Amino acid sequence: MEGAALIVDQQARGWDFLTNHARVLLAAARDPTARIRDIGAACHITERTAQSIVGDLEQAGYLSREREGRRTRYILHLDGRLRHSTEAHLPVRALLELFTGGDREDLAPEGGSGPGKHAP
Predict the structure, then answer these.
(1) How far is it, in rounded angstroms, from Cα 34 to Cα 112?
(2) Per the database record, which ranges form the HTH marR-type domain (predicted)?
(3) How far is CA 80 from CA 16, 20, 57, 68, in A?
(4) In the 8-state DSSP scheme, what is residue 85?
(5) What is the pLDDT of residue 12?
């Protein structure tokens, strides 16, 4: 199999390399002022699912929300560690930099806190 046929075959098998939680975090990293509706559309999930995932990520300390007028800004806490034990030594920043090209200065404010962050 080649190209598009391979992709379609993999999608039909019901699994993917990234979870919806990772996709939502990436969408918030790419556009910190995106509406939930837009995050859902970017991730190919419903608005309700996107809202639930943002809540999960906030509760786990990977992001926080801040009101800016009528909009919400997502503040990412990228020093937190990945959740799976085999990647727990890696910060979330490493995952996001992999998918954003690593040249984004606006991924997160410095000094952010998050799950698994260790004090110096």
Answers:
(1) 20
(2) 19-70
(3) 23, 18, 11, 24
(4) T
(5) 63
- Number of residues that make up the chain: 120
pTM score: 0.76
- Tokens at 14, concatenated: 């019901």
Question: 118 near 84, Cβ under 8 Å?
Answer: no
CA 17 to chain centre: 14
At 4, list the tokens: 């598009």
β partners of residue 74 = 65
Rounded to 5°, angle at Cα 55 from 51 and 56 = 120
Burial class (CB in 10 A: 0-12, 13-18, 19+), 76: buried
- Distance separating alpha carbons of residues 82 and 60, to the nearest angstrom: 11
Q: In the numeric block, which tokens belong to residue 91?
A: 């910060």
> Mean of the per-residue pLDDT values for the chain?
84
pLDDT in tens, 11-57: 667 788 899 999 999 999 999 999 999 999 999 999 999 999 999 99
Residue ranges and CATH numbers for the domains of the chain are: 17-100 (1.10.10.10)
